[in-house]
From TrEMBL:
Keywords: Oxidoreductase
InterPro entries the UniProt entry points to: KR_dom, NAD(P)-bd_dom_sf, SDR_fam
Protein name: Short-chain dehydrogenase
Record-annotated Ketoreductase domain positions: 2-186
Amino acid sequence: MPIALITGGSSGIGTAFADQLAVEGHDLVLVARGRDQLEKAAARHRARHGVAVEPLVADLAEPVGRAAVEARLADPAAPVDVLVNNAGVEIRDEFAEAALPALQREIDVNITAVLRLTHAALPGMIERGRGSVITVSSFSGFLPPRGSSYGATKAWAIAFTDTIAASLQGTGVRMTALTPGYVRTNLVAEIHPDAAFRQGFLIMDAGRAVARCLADNRRGKVVSAPGIVYRMVSGFIELPRRTLRLGARVAGRGRTQHTIAGKNAVAGEPRAAGH
Ligand SMILES: NC(=O)c1ccc[n+]([C@@H]2O[C@H](COP(=O)([O-])OP(=O)(O)OC[C@H]3O[C@@H](n4cnc5c(N)ncnc54)[C@H](OP(=O)(O)O)[C@@H]3O)[C@@H](O)[C@H]2O)c1
């Protein structure tokens, strides 16, 4: 059975990824900090879908937690076919007033963990000629809300996915950034406790967002924007980037084809900057 590793796999959008990837026939590795919730989620998936589930307790804000997940992703004995970078932190205090350690944790989970886990997963995927890396960004990566640096971390996730996906052309490995607006999860219940908002037309179920993302990943789409309103707006915002990408391909100057470290590149040698 193929294996999918999902960070933040014990709740919300992560649960929807776990459900749908299990239905597609994947065994699961679920990562989160809370052991009890992880064990409960694992038992539910085993009972409902008959798949094998490994709960992996790790705090992605901490180097030791990230190292445990990196080691699991790089394990050739049980290769991971799908990595879902879903766990995320949102600091809602105004930037200038927010506590610096909290802002650093946001960077550590939303950026450092995504970069390091993707880096651990890709070499094996490239060698096997197949695999998917999905990173849960946010619509706020296009249009950051007033407040703090959360939107900037989600903008990084879109730019990172776009850049690395371009270098993976022809390898059989696909990368997609999911950019949902509001999704009915615990996170949104905390931000918007009023029930009327949670029933409004701008908020969607996690299952719908995830189904769209998995379909987009199969089609090779780099950005997956679920929901017609969000899709139209982000499609418009994305137009210059898409035009540039197409122009580069047409001109035959696509970004450098990915090479497995050490095969065609001198390890550690910086490449000349692009533009
Ligand atoms: N809900 C929305 O409207 C929305 C919209 C756009 C984007 N997003 C993004 O979607 C992703 C998932 O959000 P959600 O709404 O599904 O949140 P959620 O229901 O609160 O679930 C968050 C999951 O991440 C885990 N997690 C949190 N911090 C972690 C850490 N430091 N290390 C490891 N695991 C950690 C949590 O488990 P533990 O607490 O046990 O660790 C939980 O499993 C996030 O990246 C978020 O930014 C959400």
